[in-house]
Amino acid sequence: MGLTAWRSSTDSGGAESSNSNTVTVSTPGSPTVLNVTASPYSAVGDGSKLNTAAIQAAINACPSGGTVLIPSGTFKSGAIFLKSNMTLQVDGTLKGSDSTSDYPYTSWRFPYYTNANYMGLVNAYTTSYGTMSNVRIMGKGTIDGGNYGGGSLTTLGSAESSAKGDTARGDLITIKGVNGLYLGGVTVVHPAEHAIFVSYSNNITVNGINVSTYGIHNGDGIDLATSDTGYVFNSTFDNGDDCVNFNAGTSAPGVIENRSLSNVRVFNITAKRGHGGVVFGSFTAGWIRNILVEDSTFDGTDIGLRFKTGSDRGGGATGVTARDLTIKNIGTDAISFDSNYPAGTSYAPASSPGVFQNVTLSNITVTTAKGFGIWIHGLSNARDSAINLTNVALSATKGASIDQFTNSTFNKVSFTSNTQTKVWTVSNTTTFNCVSCTPSYP
Prior knowledge:
Blueprint: E1 2-5, E2 23-26, E3 33-35, E4 46-50, H1 52-61, E5 66-70, E6 74-77, E7 80-81, E8 86-90, E9 93-96, E10 122-125, E11 132-138, E12 142-144, H2 155-164, E13 173-176, E14 178-184, E15 187-189, E16 196-199, E17 202-207, E18 210-212, E19 222-225, E20 228-238, E21 244-247, H3 251-257, E22 261-271, E23 276-280, E24 288-299, E25 303-308, E26 316-330, E27 335-338, E28 355-377, E29 384-416, E30 424-435
Parallel strand pairs: 3-5, 4-6, 5-8, 6-9, 7-10, 8-11, 9-12, 10-13, 11-14, 12-15, 13-16, 14-17, 15-18, 16-19, 17-20, 18-20, 19-21, 20-22, 21-23, 22-24, 23-25, 24-26, 25-27, 26-28, 27-28, 28-29, 29-30
Antiparallel strand pairs: 1-2
């Protein structure tokens, strides 16, 4: 259906203008839907039959703008590979095989990695960055990495680790080199390693997903790496590692590659268990830039808002705003900037350490943190700077521990219910002002 519109106007003397440029608006027709159970694909959703070939055949046949539908049922599969201008709609359960032979050992999270890792269950992957575009993964169903009976690894994760080493485990949803990704609605469980790993991609939208990986080693909820422009919102994370993680490469190779993670907004999320609610680093070499985190709740994470880098990592994070957050039931520190994260062993060190700067935190309420309310520890040769807090109320077992810090202001930062008699522990710090803080400093 199309609609054409035009408009003319008159000047102060009543003379009518010429017609404006024609504007034509059209709506797309109904997309072609390929149900994987239909002939000639004939996938079977009994949880037993391996449907990799059938599902891939439907993907290969999907026309531009079309949809491949995983309907109700449990459809067992190995790695499948999406293409441009298509939707994978999961309304039932897409469940991963537990056999390593069903996943190619051809994925590289970063091109300078010293070894590959296995592909995931759902892959939109190219090393010609940007040549794949407009990929949608959505639905009301579940993307399940395979069997998991507890412990630190799924059945597949254990098999992949035994075959090629711990770092070879695959990410359940692997996105690389895509321009235009929409991920929405689905529940994601039981990855071999990270649940969702997005790298070298642009224009990313993540809306209304539920990612549950608690107990799984390295089971991050979602990682956004070396990418530009993304939105993560209306989603829940309960994870075995970081809930939402940002990274930009590590050590000397990451500095040389010089690809940042930039222009990301996270809002209206709930982070439950995990190593951190929203986490910056420790891969910081190419810089993490221009990030907004707001209107969210971290409830039960080990650390609430977490920044981490190291003396060998390079880069850092800058231009970060986090506001209107509720942080509660935290296992250790509520707000943490740690530049002493352990050095990596696989890569040559960066020529400069990682650093955090130009960070604004405001309107944050912390209730029940078992460690420090605020932990900021920079390095002697890379002090954290311009980290400014406003209207931050903290109820934590301990107060603030600050070292190697400069050029920052805390305004209306208050501590309550601390068991420490000394709330402020500050060293190696210059040009640090506290305005209307409780208790006051110095």
